[in-house]
Amino acid sequence: MSWSATVRYSMEPAPEGLAFVQDLMNTISAGKPRTSDLLANPADARTWLAQALAQWSRSTGTPAAGIELGPDDHEELRVFRDELRRTAGQDSDDALPPLHTAAVALQLGGNGQVRPEPRGAGWRRVAALALIEVFQAQRAGTWQRLKLCRNERCGTAFFDRSRNNSGVWHDVKICGNAANLRAYRARQRVQSAS
Known about the structure:
Layout: H1 4-7, H2 18-25, H3 42-60, H4 73-87, E1 104-108, E2 114-118, H5 123-140, E3 146-148, E4 157-159, H6 172-193
Antiparallel strand pairs: 1-2, 3-4
């Protein structure tokens, strides 16, 4: 099993639990040809979530808590996904109003380790899990590497593995070359018109 939303765009997943966030962000309808939105209806959202939670559990070594989505949870989950997508790759200390709040409990284990535990039900629990992973990625310095492809026709979330974190395309051959060719042709038209 793999990250179903991310793999359909032929991308390598982000490391560890951040891949859950990337997969949630990649449930959008994108690519060429267009893929379906995996949160478009309750049945598709439940299928995606079951697969993503199982993969998250394997990736992190943490038992997956069963999360049941209610009949309208897919709509709220889509809103949360879109807010995550707007903030992807941002690493700023700007004091902006919070977009989402999620309930999280801190649990002290017998080994002295404190770990965050998502709370809530339905989409709220999914949001709590995703925000825990974003927080941990911020602390590890990897959150700013989760970006959206600059190609507006694409918009898939990718993990930038470049040495200096300068990647802008999920795949240079697919999106980068096409965008660079369009820019080159536009410059040629301007030069020939003058």
